[in-house]
Amino acid sequence: MKARTFLIALSVTIGLLLIISFGIWRGAAAQSPLNLKNEPITLPSTAKFFPKEALLTIHLKLDVNRFPRYIEAVVPEKKRNKARSETVKIRNGFFALAGLDFERDLSSWVNPKFSLSIIKVNGEQEHFGWLLAIQGDDKEGPSSFMKSFWDKKVLDGEDVLQENYNNFEIYSYNDPLFPKKRKEISTTIVEDKVVLASSEKVILKKAIDTSKDPQLSQLNDQELIQSIEKMNTGIGLINASEEALETLLDLPKSLTQKNSLERLVASIKAEGPELLLDGLFKFKESGTEIKSQRESAISLVNGSGGPIQDIAILSEPFKLIDSASEDPEAKLLGPILRQYINDLDSTAINRITNSEKGPLVWINEDAGWIIGTKDNSQDLEIDKSLRSNGFSKSSLALKEKKIDVWSKLAINKSGKYDNIINNVEIILSQENESNWWGNNIAALEQRLQVNSLTNNNKRFQNLISNDGNYFDQQVFLGPTSSQKILSDWKPWKLLQAVIGHSLKQNIKSIAISIGASKDDIEQTINFHAKLLLG
User: Fold this and answer.
1) DSSP class of residue 4?
2) All residues at 6 or more sequence positions from 467 whose CB lies less than 8 Å from its CB, including other chains
3) CB contact set of 523 (below 8 Å; sequence gap of 6+)
4) Looking at CB atoms within 10 Å, which of 29, 72, 240, 330 has the fewest?
C-alpha cells in the first residue's frame, strides 16, 4: 500500500516550509518584525475533528501569507525577486495539491492556525487520504470562500454535490486529477470560522462523527495530552503513529515493529536559527535498560579543549553499537555510530567501542579523532588484539607525558624505489582515571588546549546543559557529518526533489539527544533534535 503523490508531497512540503523558515531565521529576525512566537503547546479546538487513529497529524501556527517575506528578508538584494517568486510557487503549489488556489481562495481570510492529517481509509482497497482544517479570523471569510469556491465549480461545469450530514452542509465534486478513482474533494464549515477540506467525502463524514464522540478525537486523547504537558513552547505539534513513522518518515522496521512502537509526539520550535523537535517516542513494552553514565561522560568532556567537528557522549556504548540490540536507543542512534566505525575500518576502534564498560566520548577535531573512556583495562585487551594483527607497541614521551603507540612497518611503493613506512593504528594517552585514544599526535595535543569544548561551541554547550538528566546519549554533528547522515534519508531526498536542487551546502549541524524513562508497562524515549541550516 503506497501513499499517493499528494500525501508524499504533503509531508515533504511541510518539512520544506519549516526548514526554510527556521534555517534562515537568524537573518530574518534581525532585519524584519516577522518574528515567530513560540507559545505553550496546546491542542487547537479543531483537534476534536481529527481521529485518534490518524496516521500523521500536524497542528501549526505559521503565517503562510507572510512566508515569502521571511525568505525575502534574508537573501541578497539581487536575489530577492527570484527567492520570493520561488517561495510563492512552493506555498501555492502545496495548497494546489489540495485543489485550492491559495491567492484567490484563502489569502484574504486565512489566519496562521491550520491543521492537517493523513488518514487510512478502509474499504475494498485500503488507501490514504487527507484532512485539512483552515481557520479564519471571523465568519465572513470561510463563508465567502465556500460560496465563491463552489459557485466557480458550478460555472466550470463541475459535478458539484451538496449533502446535509448531521447538520453540516458538505460540498464535494469529483476531482479530475483522479478520474479513474473518482475521488471527491469535499469541504464544510465547522465552528463558524473553520473550513474542513478532505480528499474524499468519507473522511469528512468521519471527522464530523469524531467531533460528536469525545472518546474518538485527539482533543480528548489523554495519552496525547499527557505527552504535551511534558513539552514547553513551540509553533507546532506532530502526532505520528507507528505506521506513519515507518511509511512516511522512513524509520527502520526493526524499531517500529519489534519494539512495539506506538507513536511519536513532538513539538516544533523556533530557537534562533535552529529548528528544534522536542518529543517522545512511546512504546507498549519496556526495552532493555541502559544505565545512565552521563555525569561521568560529561567529566571527560570538561577536561578537553580545542575546536570540534563532531562529538558523541554515550552511556554503555557497546549496547548502542550492537546491531543485534533490541533496545530502542540502539535502533535510533546505532546506525549513525556504526557508520562512523565502518568508515574508519579500525581494529582498535572496534575493540574500544565494544567494551562493556562505559561511558565513552568520541570527538572529531580538525586534526583528527579522539575517544575518551573510563575503562582502564582496555589497553591490555587492545594490545593483545593489535599484536595478533601484526602491530607492535612502543612507549614514548610527549611533553613529559607518556604515550603508547601501536604501529606496523610496511613497504610503500613510490616511483622507482620502495620505502619503509610506519603505519600508526592508534595512540593512547592516560590521565588520572581516563584513557584518551587518538589516530595522531596532533589530535591528542589539540584536546589539551586551555579553552574547554563547552566554551568553544555554544550550541554544544546548550546541548549538554539544557537537556537535563533524561538524556543519556548525545550526538552533535558538524557540516560534513550532518550532510552525510541526511543524504541517504528518504524524506530529505524527496524534499530536495520538490525544491529542485541540493540542500547539501545549507546543512550546518545536527544535534540529537535521547534518553529512556520507563515504568512496568511502557517505555518512553525522550529526545531533542536540532537542525541548523545556513
Assistant:
1) -
2) 474, 513, 515, 528
3) 283, 285, 286, 287, 328, 516, 517
4) 29
Q: Are 135 and 194 in contact (CB under 8 A)?
A: yes
- Residue 359, preceding peptide bond in cis (omega within 30° of 0): yes
Instruction: Answer yes or no: are the C-beta atoms of 290 and 316 closer than 8 Å.
Output: yes
Task: Report d(CA 237, CA 129) in Å as an integer.
Answer: 20
Helix (H, G, I), strand (E, B) or coil at 2: coil
Q: With 0-12 CB in 10 A as exposed, 13-18 as middle and 19+ as buried, what is 232? A: exposed
Rg (CA), the chain: 27
Give per-residue pLDDT as tens, 212-242.
999 999 999 998 998 898 887 888 899 988 8
Among 21-25, 442-446, 522-526, which is the least confidently predicted range? 21-25
| Integer Cα distance of 362 and 512 in angstroms | 14
Contact 334, 321 (CB under 8 A): yes
Between CA 118 and CA 353 the distance in angstroms is 41
Q: For the chain, what is the mean pLDDT? A: 77
Rounded Cα–Cα distance for residues 18 and 60 (Å):
10
408-440 pLDDT, tens digit each: 998 888 777 888 888 889 999 888 778 889 988
Q: Which of 366, 329, 350 is nearest to 470 (CA)?
A: 329
Q: Grid cell 463524514 — which residue?
A: 205
Task: Taking each helix axis as running N to C, give the angle between helix 490-499 and helix 479-487, from 0 to 180 degrees, rounded to the nearest 10.
Answer: 90
Q: What is the separation, in whole angstroms, between the first and last Cα of the chain? A: 37
How many CB atoms within 10 Å of residue 358? 24
Residue 385 has pLDDT above 90, yes or no: no
- pLDDT at residue 202 in the model: 92
CA distance linking residue 191 with residue 196, whole number of Å: 10
Cα atoms found within 13 Å of the Cα of residue 392, Cβ hemisphere only: 5
How far is residue 306 from each of residues 303, 310, 532, measured CA to CA in Å? 11, 12, 22
| Cell numbers standing for residue 409 | 612497518
Farthest CA pair distance, the chain: 91
- Please give the average per-residue pLDDT across 185-204, as a whole number: 91
Could you give the 3-state DSSP secondary structure of residue 22?
helix
The lowest-confidence range among 221-235, 324-338, 365-379, 440-454 is 440-454
User: Domain map of the chain by residue range?
Assistant: 5-283, 294-533
CB 14 within 8 A of CB 21: no
